[in-house]
Amino acid sequence: MGRGGFDEDEEKPLDPAAERLRRKMIRLLAVSIGTMLVAVMAVLGAVVYKVAGPRQPTAATAATLDLPAGASVEDMALSGGEALLRLRLREGERERLLRVDIATGRVLGTLDLRRP
């Protein structure tokens, strides 16, 4: 009784076919566990990226835009980080469109509109 009560039958080596099958099953188990670990890491990585990923810039910017003398802003439209201003110039005789970068206040484009 020196071996903890095990039968002598359990200690016999497996036949070669059963040993090959056991090795294949162990290899399949290892590949399956590895695949599952990779999948779980990918999901956790996607969750972390979504939660702590890139954020949209805040709209709290302060920029100054110098308008032409006698101009008044008639209308404005925002798109992303840009604004389109419709200005009325000197007693309403002409209009001008200004495309402006909101963050810097820099004029990106100008279009003069004249009525015939």
Descriptive labels:
transmembrane, 1 helix, Fimbrial protein, alpha+beta, membrane, 116 residues, transmembrane helix
Q: How would you describe this protein?
A:
Keywords: Membrane, Transmembrane, Transmembrane helix. This protein has one helix spanning 16-52, and strands at residues 72-79, 82-89, 94-101, 107-114. With 116 residues, the protein is an alpha+beta fold. The longest helix is centred in the first third of the chain and has 37 residues, at 16-52. Strands 1-2-3-4 form a 4-stranded antiparallel β-sheet, with no helix packed on it. It contains 1 helix and 4 strands; from the N terminus they run αββββ. 32% of the residues lie in helices and 28% in strands.
Task: Give the helix/strand layout.
Elements: H1 16-52, E1 72-79, E2 82-89, E3 94-101, E4 107-114
Antiparallel strand pairs: 1-2, 2-3, 3-4
* Largest sheet: number of strands, sense, barrel closure: 4 strands, antiparallel
Strand content: 25-35%
The coarse overall form would be: rod-shaped
What is the percent of helical residues? 25-40%
Poorly predicted ranges = none
Put simply, the count of helices is 1
Given helix and strand content, the structural type is: alpha+beta
Transmembrane segments: 28-49
Protein name: Fimbrial protein
Keywords: Membrane, Transmembrane, Transmembrane helix
